[in-house]
Write a structure and sequence with these properties.
It is built from six helices and three strands; from the N terminus they run H-H-E-H-H-E-E-H-H. GO terms for molecular function: DNA binding; DNA-binding transcription factor activity.
């Protein structure tokens, strides 16, 4: 049986699912799918320390799920739309209800964030 062009190995799917099994990383990807965020914005939205947010972002970046862009002292992150896992991640993120209480609470915090 031939593997589909963009299909992942069972190990690749398993690793991706392990990363997404953490609620913070899952919701972080939900935000990063929509637009680019600075670490300080994510810190305020998720109510976590900068090292905590950076640790989650490092795991997502090492897995190829997010990309990083530097601008002066700031680092901006967004979902990596051309990574091999993107189709799987996009499909999973679509399953999150926009009316989810946790997601709504985080979105309210987003409005008040400004790091510039």
């Amino acid at each position: 049986m031939q593997r589909q062009h963009n299909a992942l190995s069972s190990e690749g799917v398993s690793q991706c699912l392990k990363l997404l099994s953490d609620t913070t990383r899952l919701l972080m990807l939900k935000f990063l799918k929509e637009k680019e965020y600075c670490v300080c914005e994510l810190t305020a939205i998720f109510g976590m320390s900068q090292p905590g947010i950076s640790q989650h972002l490092r795991k997502l970046k090492n897995a190829g799920l997010v990309r990083e862009r530097r601008e002066g002292q700031w680092r901006y992150y967004a979902i990596h739309p051309s990574g091999p896992e993107y189709a799987l991640v996009r499909s999973i993120l679509q399953q999150i209800d926009e009316k989810d209480g946790v997601l709504q609470t985080l979105r309210q915090k987003e409005v008040t964030v400004s790091c510039r």
